[in-house]
Amino acid sequence: MTAYPHEPIRSDKNPTIKRIKALLTQARQRKKQQQTVLEGVHLIDAALRSDYPLAQILVAESSCHHPEVQAILRQLQSGKTPILCLDDAVYQNVRTLGTGVDIMALIDTPAHNLAPIDSDCLILNDVQDSGNVGTLLRTAAAVGIDTVICTPMTAQVWSPKTLRAGMGAQFALTIYEDVSIDSILSEVNVPLLATSSHTDTLIYQHDLRAPLAWVMGNEGQGVDTSLLHSATPIALPQPNGQESLNVAIAGALCLYETLRQRSYRHLTA
């Protein structure tokens, strides 16, 4: 069993505690500090499996000897990651998750500069709901698309809510945030495709086997006009006449039809 070496922090006035609470609750602080917080065993495990560095571990006193916490601590035996124990009441005052295994990790968030893109990618054009963004990231990772580009009004990819929705998919992806539409149009060198109700080209009739960029638009306004004008419009059939699909559902359908076409080609080649 891994022993815990420090006395618990018992004051919520502690500077580290105040910083963690700000990162969990304030998008402005996450952007300013270029850091975020992973809550719970699952996200920390996902980071460790991807060899993503943890800046700090914080664990509630009552969870220090939990088997899942002990397993995480054993992976950090090198001593490079500071480990802090928190009094249970202090931890509960900070956390945003419900009851569970009380452990969290502080990480630095990556900042990539967009370079020319010549392979598959997913473009999130002002998708504002964290749940939708996380679901789209998770789906992209599942089908093997590892590049995601986000325009400035897209929900923060590394916010605690988006991290939970993505189930750790962020660690399997190269994600570019706050990218202007002009930069996308100049740097993405594969065809852009965007779902639209104003076209007769059904997704099942379009060849998706070559590298491409799927564009998913804002929940209310859809894809920006300048991006839409540069994209091939693709329709998702809705025989019962619903106005539109949820963007995360639409994105999943597009990505999996892309995968289906390519897998079919591979299997019959």
Automatic annotation (TrEMBL):
Record domain MRM3-like substrate binding: where: 14-94
GO molecular function: methyltransferase activity
Keyword terms: Methyltransferase, Transferase
Alphabetical list of InterPro entries matching this protein: Alpha/beta_knot_MTases, MRM3-like_sub_bind, Ribosomal_eL30-like_sf, rRNA_Methyltransferase, SpoU_MeTrfase, tRNA_m1G_MTases_N
Database matches in Pfam families: MRM3-like_sub_bind, SpoU_methylase
Domain of life: Bacteria
GO biological process terms on file: methylation
Residue ranges constituting the tRNA/rRNA methyltransferase SpoU type domain according to the UniProt record: 122-256
Similarity remark: Belongs to the class IV-like SAM-binding methyltransferase superfamily. RNA methyltransferase TrmH family.
Matching PANTHER family: RRNA METHYLTRANSFERASE 3, RRNA METHYLTRANSFERASE 3, MITOCHONDRIAL
UniProt protein name: RNA methyltransferase
Source organism of the structure: Psychrobacter aestuarii
